[in-house]
Every structure is written in C-alpha cells, then in structure tokens.
Design brief:
Blueprint: H1 2-14, H2 24-55, H3 64-69, H4 74-93, H5 101-119, H6 132-152, H7 154-166, H8 168-182, H9 191-195, H10 197-200, H11 202-218, H12 220-235
GO molecular function: endopeptidase activity; metallopeptidase activity
Keywords: Hydrolase, Membrane, Metalloprotease, Protease, Transmembrane, Transmembrane helix
Protein name: CPBP family intramembrane metalloprotease
C-alpha cells in the first residue's frame, strides 16, 4: 500500500507513472488494494460534501439521474453501471492517456457518439424512432476515417504523438477533471448547481484520478475492471 500511495503522489505531481510488469497474481493483490483506496477516497469525498453543505447551510442539488436510475430494474442498473458506463467513460477519458493511432481514432469516435446521442434527434438507420443506431454508424465511419487518415499521413500522427508527450501532465489532469465535471449532468441544470460543480462532483473526480493511475500502471482493461467493480459495490447499497 505504501508503494501505491507513493506512486499516486508522483502521479499527482508529474502526471506519469511507470507501467507494472508484475506477475498476474501480484497485480490482482495490488488491484484489490487500489480498489479499497478508491472506496476510501470516495467515502472521504462524500463526507467533505456533507460537511460543506452543512457548514454553509446550502441546499444540496437534486441528483435527477440517480432518482430516475433507482426506478429502473436491477438488470438495467447493472448493465448500465457495470458494463456500459465503465466501457464508454474509459474510452472517453483514459484511452488516449497512451497515444496511438487506434486509441485516438476510438477516442474521437466515442466522443462523436456521445454528442450525437445526446443532442441529435430523429430516426435510426432502420427507421426506428430511436437514433442510437445512426449515432453508432456515423461514429464508426468517422473512427475508421480518422484511423485511415493518420495511417496515411504519418507526419500528422507524429505531431499528435509529440503533442501528447509534451503536454502529458495537462492531458492527464484534463481527463481527471473532465471525468468529474461530466457527472454534473446528473444534477439539475440550475446556475447555482453549475457553481457547485467542483464540490458535488468531488467523488467522481477522485475516482477519475484513481482510474487514471490504474490505466497508466496496468493498462486500459484494468481501468474498466476497476470502474465496473467500483460501480457494482455502490449498486449493492441500492438493492
């Protein structure tokens, strides 16, 4: 645990961490410790939020998403929280922490899907009233086009790689803060809620830091696994 905390301190200051080359069973032991640490940070963040609203006598914003989420079936909750959300959010925020052509193409495609799904209206590819299939189709096309472009234009790809390497620390913190702030959309859209975003999203921001650490230390799939395990643990208190 001391080594993990030490590496987290280095990551906090430099935005970098050395990849693990430990054997599988040692990785699992370290992973479990990181999972416990992520839960502890989330718990502490929750206490800070409670103290903030108690001290300043401010009404806590309504978590509209959570209220709606609790009305869904247990199967829907598990599928969304433990499968869909971890995969999509890790693609959005942590895949490109290690640059490659395919990573950048997938990162671009998943963000296009997010914006199309959120803001586009109309019919799907097969005439259905839900436009999800159209959003997926367009995103896959753009993803393939970006990958092909970078493969053909190596100079552009090299510049992107150099940019990511040069601004590594900034990009890491953008991923951490962006992940936290994205969860502001779970709450009501009032101006007062917007001002409180750094406070009400503190648990997600702290989780984003831990997920970034796992992604850089152990790889992308381990980040999805931690994200899924964390959400499943929280879900256990819903049932």
């Amino acid at each position: 645990m001391k080594m993990i905390i030490s590496e987290l301190g280095i990551l906090l200051s430099s935005g970098k961490v050395i990849s693990s080359k430990n054997q599988f069973y040692l990785r699992l032991i370290e992973f479990f410790r990181i999972f416990l640490l992520a839960l502890l940070l989330s718990f502490v963040s929750g206490l800070i939020i409670l103290a903030f609203f108690e001290i300043f006598k401010i009404e806590k914003p309504v978590n509209v998403f959570l209220n709606s989420f609790r009305q869904k079936s247990w199967f829907y909750q598990i599928a969304l929280a433990c499968l869909y959300a971890p995969i999509v959010e890790e693609l959005q925020f942590r895949l490109c922490l290690k640059y490659s052509q395919i990573n950048f193409a997938a990162f671009s495609g998943i963000w296009l899907f997010y914006f199309l799904k959120r803001f586009m209206t109309g019919y799907g590819l097969f005439g259905e009233h839900n436009h999800t299939s159209l959003a997926i189709g367009l995103s896959l096309i753009i993803m393939g086009a970006i990958y092909s472009f970078l493969h053909e234009h190596r100079n552009v790809n090299n510049r992107l790689a150099e940019f990511c390497q040069k601004h590594y620390k900034v990009l890491f913190y953008i991923s951490v803060i962006g992940f936290g702030f994205l969860h502001k959309t779970n709450f009501d859209s009032s101006f007062s809620t917007l001002l409180l975003t750094p406070v009400i999203t503190l648990p997600q921001t702290s989780l984003g830091f831990m997920l970034g650490y796992v992604r850089l230390k152990y790889g992308f799939l381990y980040g999805i696994l931690l994200h899924s395990a964390f959400n499943f643990f929280l879900l256990c208190f819903q049932f």
